[in-house]
Request: fold
Amino acid sequence: MSISLLKGCHISLTKESPALNNIAVGLGWDAKKAGGGLLGLLRLGSDFDLDASVFMLDENDKLLSSKHFVYYGNLTSPEKSVQHQGDNLTGEGDGDDEVINIALSRLPAQIQKLVFVVNIYEALSREQNFGMVQNAFIRLVNQSNNQEIAHYHLNEAFSHETAMIFGEVYLSKGEWTFKAVGQGSMDDLNQMINLYT
Ligand SMILES: [Ca+2]
Ligand SMILES: [Ca+2]
Reply:
């Protein structure tokens, strides 16, 4: 049975699924329906494109290399341990909008943490932020049996954030652990890359 996590909570994936190797990480969101008034008109004028990405970090919380930042412009990490399934441009519809596959056994030994981020494409020029997003979630599926292991719905009220850490998968005492993070930021992707470099 899938475990529903609240913000800040974590579970041991190794304990939940001892033979776990291939994980599909599904991330979803919807743009709030544009209301009336000028803001609604402005919002209708631009596409609303959210992008999921993964920072693959070593024990110092630094990217192992620039190729270990996996996003729509770099869909696969060098050793194919992390593979982004492609860019969704609208977020329309229920279910996963973007999916990132993880093969734990292929991860380089130096990788201690995977940080799953969703940011709004061209948020500044399009004047968009997470206050305009609803139904955001991250979920982990065991690909060997297609069973969902855990999910986290970001129910908090967000406002000016343009990027959001949805969750993290990290090694803790030798066990892969998933944490529901839900931490927003006004940084763009380049600023986040600098944080982890
Ligand atoms: Ca996208
Ligand atoms: Ca959606």
